[in-house]
Amino acid sequence: MKIYNSLSGSKEVFKPITQKKINMYVCGMTVYDDCHIGHARTFLTFDLFLRFFNFLGFEVNYVRNITDIEDKIIEKAKIEKVNYDDISLRFIESMHEDFKKLNLLSPNIEPKASEHIGEIVSMIENLESKHHAYSVEEGDVYFDINSYSDYGKLSKRNLEELDAGARVEVDKFKKSPNDFVLWKKTQTEPNWKSRWGRGRPGWHIECSAMSKKYLGNTFDIHGGGLDLKFPHHENEIAQSECCNEKGFANYWMHVAPLNVDGKKMSKSLDNFITIKKVLNEYHSEVLRVFFYLTHYRKPINFTKDSIIEAKNILDKIYESLRNFELIDIEIDENYKSKFEEALSDDFNTPKALKILQDLTQKINKADSAEKKYTFQTTLKSLANAIGLLSDTTESYFKYSGKEEISEEEIEALISKRNEARQNKDFEKADSIRDDLLSKDIILEDKNDKTFWKKR
RNA sequence: GGCUGAGUGGCAGAGUGGUCAUGCAGCGGACUGCAAAUCCGUCCACGCCGGUUCGAUUCCGACCUCAGCCUCCA
Description:
alpha/beta
């Protein structure tokens, strides 16, 4: 198994600390709004990692946190005149709903920042006692970046560069412009008692505290979106390594960003697409295929055409499993090993997908029932390993977030049409088919049966 | 300006020093009452300029372009 390690900037042979066990920490959501498809990419990618590690026989301890104390949450609460946890709880619920629909495997632990204030405070105290942190008159506590010589090793920058490029106005209390806040003094909710007065944690420290609690000082994999690499992950490394006096994560994995119509998603551009919106039109596995089509370290562009392409591909694959019933049969080892090989090379999903497409073609061209079953079973089993083909063909094709016409009505029209066909009244039969097509229902006559699917 | 990464056919996207990726879309054909699905066939390619080489999309160097980060961000 080879994975690309952001820390070294190269592909490395993956060696977990404990054989066959993996401790993995992923930076999760800051819950101040509905999840968008950029989030979907990141978490679907880590879900793939998790599934494939399981497939290879690793036991993964997966921690994905929830950041529920943060400026944007507090701001929103102020605007809506509600408690901050009304906001965070609302969006945690929304997130869980989305993630369930995306068929994401649950993390083993999903810790919340607000429930780890004790751990956070003691970590800051530890850093202060070792002179890696300092408090100022105002009551804020900062991390002293110059006390940690390895600063910048993940994002590959040094302090001089950072100082030169600093665009923000320097806080007058900071010793160095790149020092970042560990504890923010505040009287507004939420706040907690501490030796520096009432306040709340800064961003970054919660991940150091929670990963330490659940995974220990040093663990295998730490990841998140590429945009978290700097400063968030860089700062986590600084805090954790200074506090624990041990190496932090061995492998860092970052998922490249997603653009919409060639532009970064943002509310001002009005190209902000939520997971809910996409799932309203497409089966969640279409989104999965869409992501798998591009390697996770490459930027991806979300357009109407590209999601349709993903749907076309998945449609074909599902089509080849129509009427498939799982029977006890050996799977094709040759395809299995090719599939494993592709994903073992830093999760080359485009290649893995191609193997599934090859299998589909083999099924369609199989000249014996036995061969067909073998390929179908192989396809199903490999696809399942990466979270695909978990639905039946029938229900996949009938999936739709919105209902324009009921299944009963469709079935009724189909039998009406077949009656007309038997009477050779093709004009009537075609008009019924056109009518259904206008409602996005496609009919397929196969042998003596008629199937329907959503466009 | 700095750092990091990337440039392959309409789009997506593998891979390799010397035949071919592949998929989606398109086009032609088979099948079908007609379609759809499926199968068969088919078009289109490696940013630019040098160098190494018998030969480079693949190796080396310069250049150009793009993206992300440098401020909140998955």
